[in-house]
Amino acid sequence: MEARCTSRKNPRVVTLPDELVAEILARVPFRSLCQLRCVSQSWRSLCSDPAVLRRCPQTLAGFFFRTRPHRRSRSVRQFVNASGRGPPMVNPSLSFMPPVYSRASFLDSCNGLLLCRRDDIQSQVDAYFVCNPATENWMVLPDLQVTKRRFSFRAFRLGFDPAVSSHFRVFVLESDPRPPKTWDHLMTGVEIFSSETRAWSYRQSEWDGGNGAVVGWDSLFFNGILHLTSPGSSSLLTMDMDGRAWGRILTPHDFDFMGVSQGRLHAVHRTKNGGDECISIWVLEDYAGQQWTLKHAVTAMQMFGARIRSFGNSCTFIVRALHPEHGLIFLTAGRLRSLLAYDMDKKEVRFIWNLGENHIFAQAYVPCFSDWLSDGR
């Protein structure tokens, strides 16, 4: 009995070499590493090792968004974890950037990188930059060239896929100079910035014989190709990262949102049936053959049930993201723009966060610890 008691008071502790611990931690998801950093100083050092972070499996960490406490006040950058619990896994202040970039707006995000624009309206010099909050790397983009081309609107998109290239692209879509009758625009050309050459190049649209194509708001960079919604055409527009190959993917419907889940391109179609709203999720099973399969369909009433009244008179919701590994749809609904997660397998809805009525830009964020050439660090 005494031996057992002594054993409990003085348990044998097996100490593993740091190299073996690092090898184990490299297989732990980023979210768990953030929690393990609180164990001790030595664990904090191990869990922050760039070699470990580059190898650990990455998944959806949360969402960047901006809010305005009042309509006339400055917007505030914020971050909410995908679980809705705990302190933010990412610091939304971008404190690693030089002070001149302390006030900046998010324009787009892609595979761990953020495309931002300075809020300093007094100067348009060095107005745009791309940064990686996980590695605290950043690059200021050269100014867009002055051009005689006429356009009514410019939309900025970011393209980055570490599995394809360590370099990113910034696409500036230029629309027809005639004011559009709707929110959709006729894209006639694109300025492309390459982080490899650090220069801009212009490409005229080659869709529809060079006459341009109607482009919607949503875009997706997947397998080194920029995909764009095209309202009214029952297709997705495609363009390679250098603007040399232009094409279309035929679709069963006009899609409102695109995302990647389980390595395949997914798209969302919204319809209204009376006062109820329905979303259907389609997956591109065969990319080369352009074969789509209906994966899931659900109405607002089926999703929320009696709780639908808590979202006000309108049950309209907006899809914000698809989970990269699991069958989860992230969406916002209601006056307070509640961020929700809908499980397609369990058919359950989970509340995450109230983004606020005046929130701007809610973008999913998956950390990326890949090395890339930058101006910082």
TrEMBL record:
<dbReference type="InterPro" id="IPR017451">
    <property type="entry name" value="F-box-assoc_interact_dom"/>
</dbReference>
<dbReference type="InterPro" id="IPR036047">
    <property type="entry name" value="F-box-like_dom_sf"/>
</dbReference>
<dbReference type="InterPro" id="IPR013187">
    <property type="entry name" value="F-box-assoc_dom_typ3"/>
</dbReference>
<dbReference type="Pfam" id="PF00646">
    <property type="entry name" value="F-box"/>
</dbReference>
<dbReference type="Pfam" id="PF08268">
    <property type="entry name" value="FBA_3"/>
</dbReference>
<protein>
    <recommendedName>
        <fullName>F-box domain-containing protein</fullName>
    </recommendedName>
</protein>
<dbReference type="InterPro" id="IPR055290">
    <property type="entry name" value="At3g26010-like"/>
</dbReference>
<feature type="domain" description="F-box">
    <location>
        <begin position="10"/>
        <end position="56"/>
    </location>
</feature>
<dbReference type="InterPro" id="IPR001810">
    <property type="entry name" value="F-box_dom"/>
</dbReference>
